[in-house]
């Protein structure tokens, strides 16, 4: 039987990453034991070697340089690193998950193959908005922000010119891509999923939950497992926390988990406030689920999420949610009705939202969260995606 061969390239992969890492790990699980497909994941790494996981899954480790600082990203960009993988496996489908340089490098490498594969992309980061427009908006240069956003979309149109499909998990993001020059037939909505057997209220650890709250069940508990940077709302939350402490009679208990460029700020807050703890980087899904299920509230403060896996995982564990008013965070909040939409991106507004959650009917919010999250699974995500691949091939 002829198998469909798929090769993945993504410079957003990181061993300590969040949503993109989870996407690829779950994708590899899906394909691992299949007999009708072969998935090859080209992983940027510290050395080059082939790792055969099963007949359905191979990881090609490619040696590349590591970015300095509190990051673990490596960058594949040379055609000479890409072409050997393509020649070795002669793929039917290629998926590229990052927008910088890699899409064109992969496209050029494909020109040297006897069998030209179908190129697809996954819009994991809405980079014209998140990394370009926002930068200039922070400098209070709205005209430049709009101008460079348009240039970024022009770059994307050029980079993905030969790509048959652009996938995204947010309807808002897909609509913005369409408005910026990508035809509707090239766009595909692929909502991501959640391991509903792992991320469940059953993952709650009562002893852990009460220890978080300092043995006071009335204390509000919050989990922040996002990358430590301004994009994810870290500074916003750290500025809002003292305001919440002044309003509530009991300081909320906060668990931070992960890493990022602003890790020193998190460690400083943990030293300053009695009920802020830094848990380090949590590797296992089970441990993440325990943390989600053992707190009252999770935060989705980035208005530029393209899906927000951590948001869905928290909802699947029954957490209430405070979400940014744009992007996938807003889509999840509006779809679930499981919390409060942040009306403006200020510490004062966030403090008000946290106080509102502390006084809300948490039992009803939990029920709303669970009813929404049960509609998403990784199986349905990748089944939908594979069907899209097959329609392109046939």
Please indicate the percent range of residues in DSSP E strands (runs of 2 or more).
15-25%
CATH architecture of the largest domain: 3-Layer(aba) Sandwich
Low confidence ranges? none
Largest sheet: spatial strand order: 3-4-2-1-5-6-7-8
- Mean of all residue-level pLDDT scores: 94
CATH topology of the largest domain: Rossmann fold
The secondary-structure element order is: EHEEEHEHEHHEHEHEHEHEHEHEHEHHH
Structural class: alpha/beta
Report the strand count: 14
Radius of gyration (CA) equals: 21 Å
Shape verdict: globular
Question: CATH class of the largest domain, please?
Answer: Alpha Beta
Number of helices: 15
Main pleated-sheet profile: 8 strands, mixed
| Cα end-to-end separation | 16 Å
**CATH fourth-tier homologous superfamily of the largest domain:** Glycogen Phosphorylase B
Plain-language structure description:
This protein is an alpha/beta fold and 394 residues long. It has two domains: 4-192 and 377-393, Glycogen Phosphorylase B (Rossmann fold); 201-373, Glycogen Phosphorylase B (Rossmann fold), CATH 3.40.50. The protein has 15 helices and 14 strands. It has helices spanning 19-32, 79-89, 102-110, 127-138, 142-159, 171-179, 206-212, 234-247, 263-272, 285-293, 309-316, 327-336, 347-359, 362-373, 378-393, and strands at residues 4-9, 37-45, 49-54, 57-63, 93-96, 118-122, 165-168, 187-189, 221-224, 253-256, 276-278, 297-300, 320-323, 339-341. The strands form two sheets. The chain has an eight-stranded mixed sheet, with helices on both faces. The protein has a six-stranded parallel sheet with strand order 11-10-9-12-13-14, sandwiched between helices. Strand 5 (93-96), helix 3 (102-110) and strand 6 (118-122) form a beta-alpha-beta unit. The radius of gyration is 21 Å and the shape is globular.
């Amino acid at each position: 039987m002829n198998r469909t061969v798929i090769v993945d390239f993504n410079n957003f992969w990181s061993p300590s990453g969040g949503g993109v890492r989870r996407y690829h790990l779950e994708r590899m699980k899906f394909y691992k034991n299949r007999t009708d497909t072969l998935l090859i994941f080209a992983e940027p790494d510290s050395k080059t070697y082939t790792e055969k996981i099963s007949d359905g899954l191979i990881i090609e480790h490619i040696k590349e340089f590591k970015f300095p600082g509190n990051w673990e990203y490596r960058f594949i960009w040379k055609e000479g690193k890409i072409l050997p993988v393509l020649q070795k496996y002669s793929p039917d489908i290629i998926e590229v998950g990052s927008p910088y340089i890699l899409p064109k490098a992969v496209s050029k490498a494909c020109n040297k193959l006897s069998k030209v594969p179908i190129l697809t992309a996954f819009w994991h980061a809405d980079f014209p908005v998140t990394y370009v427009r926002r930068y200039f908006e922070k400098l209070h240069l709205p005209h430049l922000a709009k101008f460079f956003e348009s240039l970024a979309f022009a770059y994307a149109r050029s980079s993905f010119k030969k790509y048959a499909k652009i996938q995204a998990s947010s309807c808002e993001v897909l609509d913005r891509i369409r408005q910026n020059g990508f035809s509707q037939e090239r766009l595909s909505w692929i909502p991501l999923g959640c391991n509903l057997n792992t991320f469940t209220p059953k993952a709650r650890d009562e002893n852990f939950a009460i220890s978080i709250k300092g043995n006071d069940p009335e204390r509000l508990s919050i989990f922040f497992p996002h990358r430590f940077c301004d994009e994810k709302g870290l500074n916003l939350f750290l500025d809002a926390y003292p305001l919440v402490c002044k309003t509530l009679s009991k300081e909320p208990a906060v668990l931070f988990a992960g890493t990022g460029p602003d890790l020193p700020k998190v460690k400083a807050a943990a030293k300053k406030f009695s009920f802020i703890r830094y848990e380090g980087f949590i590797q296992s899904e089970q441990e993440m689920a325990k943390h989600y299920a053992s707190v009252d509230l999770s935060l989705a403060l980035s208005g530029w999420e393209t899906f927000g896996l951590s948001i869905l995982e928290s909802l699947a564990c029954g957490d209430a949610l405070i979400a940014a008013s744009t992007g996938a965070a807003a889509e999840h909040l509006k779809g679930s009705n499981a919390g409060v939409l942040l009306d403006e991106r200020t510490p004062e507004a966030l403090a008000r939202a946290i106080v509102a959650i502390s006084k809300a009917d948490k039992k009803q919010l939990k029920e709303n969260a669970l009813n929404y999250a049960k509609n998403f699974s990784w199986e349905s995500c990748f089944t939908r995606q594979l069907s899209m691949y097959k329609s392109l091939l046939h």
